[in-house]
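I am hoping you can look over what I have pasted underneath with an eye to the fold:
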Amino acid sequence: MSVGVVIGRFQVDELHEGHIKLLNYAKKNHDHMLVLLGVRPAPPSQEHPLGFELRQQMLKAYYPDATVLPVIDRSSDVAWSNQVDELIEITFPPQEVVLYGGRDSFISHYLGRFPVKELTFDTGLTIG
């Protein structure tokens, strides 16, 4: 069994083509899909107007079988990465896991133990 993990904020009214391609890739290539939604420990703002529940509902409308959980912003990349790893390990104990992100995603901040792949869709699929 394997798990494709997508991490993002998804602060949009509806998913755009890049989101859908990223999520579809994770879903197609794994038995389970886990989406971790970035959550600020602060009230909504202009930059982050949507709360976790609204974004979770949007994702579940597109991907009803996906597991969607919050991942809280932390003061350091190490603390945040440890939280990501813990959420994955608790939700999907020992399974093969790959984290997926796009350009300008979480990838440069993730210092955890799971493999990460960057997907770009500008001129087809590139896996870095």
Observations:
- The mean pLDDT is 91.
